[in-house]
Amino acid sequence: MIKVLSIHWGFSVGGIVKYAQLIDNVFHQAPIKIFSIVILGDNWDYDKNTLEKISAKTVYIKNRYDFSWISKSVLEIDSLRPQIIMTHGFNGHFVAAITRMRTKTKPRYICSYHGSYYAFTPIRKVFQRLINNFTEAYIRYCAYSCVAVSKFTKQSLLRKGVVSSKIEVIYNGIRDEESPIKFRRKFRKDWGVQDSEILLGVTSRLDPFKGIEYLIDAFYVLCKKITNCKLVIIGSGTIEKKLKEKVIKCGLNQKVIFTGFRSEVPKCLLAIDIFILPSLAENHSIGLIEAMRAGKAIIATNVGGNTESVCHLKEGLIIPAANSKSLIDAIEKLVEHRSLAETLGKSAREKFKKTFTEEIMVRKTAQWLVKCATHPTQK
After folding, report:
1. Does residue 287 register a pLDDT over 80?
2. How far, in Å, CA of 279 to CA of 327, rounded?
3. Measuring CA to CA, which residue among 67, 54, 64, 65 is closest to residue 5?
4. Helices and strands in the chain: count of H runs, count of E runs
5. Half-sphere exposure of 334 (CA within 13 A, CB side)
6. Distance between CA atoms of 16 and 228, rounded to whole angstroms?
7. Is the separation of the CB atoms in 200 and 296 below 8 Å?
8. Which helix (H) or strand (E) covers residue 283, if one does?
């Protein structure tokens, strides 16, 4: 049995937490067991539901200046004696870099890379370069191997000096599930959307680089041309208040629905007619592959790994980022050509089944972990 210890600093809602939950299932594919250490401070927000579903040991600290996590984590590592320690993001890498100097156990260190860190506040922007430089140095010098979530992400690591042989590309995957059609009627009724109305939608963290402001600008113009349309924004984040204020200022508060964070995204997606991902930066969007799973007509921006998921005029429409005019044109095209929208949605669903399912991701991750544990020489 190969024992893998996954280290997390915090456990907030997002892609990395979803990733942690998925790879917990590798034991179905190979003799591997994933254990986790999750370091949590008092009053930290975290994804309690997901944490309860994985095999995790919680290390509690009073605050970020409480360094008792070092001795506690070392104790857990030496007690478990894993062959592999896996980390995700700057904080996890930092914990591994510190504890490896004190632990008696000598595992191989591997990591996942989900892209560069983007700061959303002026204070955090001061540390943005430091965080990204440390992460890249950790992967170059400390990690035995690194899984990148897209070819785009791999290319960014290559530009930072990480050798190609150290990087394994494994796309994000999600469970293939179809929700009953009754939820389409339920959510449209809950949101005040009539059967005759066209519902545009996005599922996303509400952060600056997600491009939601450009979508609202496009929707403001679109409403003057297509009166029977509404927009639902599913998610929460740092600029939620700012976006709501923008909607009110534009006089769209009867046309735009903010749902906040929703755990039942597959059911919510049934209510949507056209899915839009207006991101300014992406690595491999889970929201995008959720829309592909649902067989939605998709509009996505030409950034990051988006075009690895959706090809223009095959599984969706690809448009330039930060361009409200292109958004308007793409939405009008899908509204006016319903058969095109339906064809793109079906093709997106087929590509999802061939490339982005949980089963495919877990199988490839299991193969990678076995290789990391058994490869005879260091890369």
Report:
1. yes
2. 12
3. 54
4. 15, 13
5. 29
6. 37
7. no
8. none
